[in-house]
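Appendix C: a fully annotated inverse folding record. The material below is reproduced so that readers can follow the format used throughout the book. The structure is listed first as tokens, followed by the designed sequence.
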């Protein structure tokens, strides 16, 4: 069965964050709608700039959001004025769905009526949009994801349209959200989160789910810095002294007067004597030598971090209106509410676990679990030895490998509530 979860927010920035979280949580972009009043025309004038910013990896304005959705368009809504819209609801507005109803209540209201909303409530949303609000809707085919969408949208404090526009004479069973069911009349419309007072007739049953969050811790790699090692060439002037030798030929004439001997007579012939002059010049040679090595690498250090957070868990407390100051009776026994025991549990924590490194808030789920076990009808005739295996199994399913740490505080709550 198709459902549509609808929420109205006072400003566009809040609605934008809702859309971003829905997309991050895995909801299909094609199922998300956003409708914003653009009476000033400022959103339309900046739409193209925002889209360009998204292309460049910047910005998160109207264009950045609607650019991820479908069916972007501008519509003139009777009684509202110009609106910028994206998503299936925008497509419905452009196509004129619900035109017959639209003549009386306006295009937004008509489209919401088509989604299964009552005419009065659709009119309230139309009024909220006219006053400058921004509308966000999520269309869902699977009932399983309705609660998840409601949880995300409720975190951002949507407007309770019944309270703001309907007046105190009208009843409201929502905390700002409306869940419409396609094809059903307004009397069949299903509601979302909020405080609900319901009367249970004889033979009827109402189920209250017990919801508990689990803490999943992962890890990711982030860059902390970059080291660059560059090789550069630099020239440095150097000089050295070298001794060089030059040769020069000298010719000298000396006067001589002596008789010629036979050797001298040999001079009576032609001859040539050559003497070569030489000189030394510097010869420069360069040889490359490795004088140092720079080794670049990475060292890996591992460390362990303790991640501490809180997880939520719903507990169902049964109140017997006929017993003053007492709570529900099971198996002939009457139990006080959990809050009556909190002081005792805090004292037990201070005495036994204050120096354990864990806070009282981290031990609170264990005390609550022990209280729930003690007030559960099916365990009415159990003693602790019989209960422990089953209690441990259920605890470990949600809190793996922590039973030994918390079992004493669980048993403390069990024994105290049971009066042992």
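Designed amino acids, in order:
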């Amino acid at each position: 069965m198709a459902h549509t979860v609808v929420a109205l927010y006072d400003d566009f920035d809040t609605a934008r964050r809702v859309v971003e979280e829905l997309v991050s949580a895995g909801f299909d972009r094609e199922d998300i709608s956003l409708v914003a009043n653009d009476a000033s025309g400022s959103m339309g004038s900046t739409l193209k700039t925002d889209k360009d910013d998204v292309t460049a990896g910047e910005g998160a304005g109207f264009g950045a959001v609607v650019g991820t959705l479908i069916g972007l368009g501008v519509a003139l809504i009777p009684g509202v004025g110009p609106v910028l819209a994206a998503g299936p609801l925008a497509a419905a507005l452009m196509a004129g769905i619900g035109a017959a109803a639209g003549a009386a209540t306006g295009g937004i209201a008509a489209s919401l009526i088509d989604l299964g909303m009552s005419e009065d409530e659709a009119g309230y949303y139309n009024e909220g949009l006219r006053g400058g609000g921004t509308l966000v809707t999520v269309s869902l085919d699977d009932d399983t994801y309705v609660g998840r969408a409601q949880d995300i949208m409720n975190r951002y404090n949507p407007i309770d349209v019944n309270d703001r526009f309907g007046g105190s004479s009208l009843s409201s069973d929502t905390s700002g959200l409306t869940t419409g069911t396609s094809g059903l009349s307004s009397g069949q419309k299903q509601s979302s989160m909020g405080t609900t007072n319901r009367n249970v007739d004889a033979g009827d049953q109402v189920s209250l789910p017990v919801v508990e969050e689990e803490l999943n811790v992962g890890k990711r790699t982030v860059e902390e810095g970059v080291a660059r090692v560059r090789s550069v060439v630099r020239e440095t002037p150097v000089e050295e002294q070298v001794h060089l030798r030059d040769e020069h030929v000298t010719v000298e004439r000396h006067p001589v007067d002596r008789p010629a001997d036979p050797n001298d007579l040999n001079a009576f012939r032609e001859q040539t004597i050559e003497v070569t002059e030489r000189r030394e010049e510097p010869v420069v040679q360069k040889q490359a030598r490795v004088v140092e090595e720079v080794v670049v690498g990475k060292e890996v250090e591992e460390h362990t971090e303790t991640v501490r957070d809180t997880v939520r868990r719903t507990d169902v407390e049964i109140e017997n209106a006929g017993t003053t100051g007492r709570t529900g009776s099971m198996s002939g026994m009457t139990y006080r509410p959990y809050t009556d025991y909190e002081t005792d549990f805090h004292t037990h924590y201070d005495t036994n676990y204050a120096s354990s490194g864990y806070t009282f808030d981290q031990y609170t789920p264990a005390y609550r679990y022990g209280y729930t076990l003690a007030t559960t009808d099916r365990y009415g005739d159990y003693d602790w030895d019989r209960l422990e295996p089953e209690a441990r199994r259920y605890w470990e399913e949600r809190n793996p490998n922590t039973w030994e740490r918390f079992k004493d505080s669980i048993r403390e709550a069990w024994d105290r509530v049971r009066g042992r």
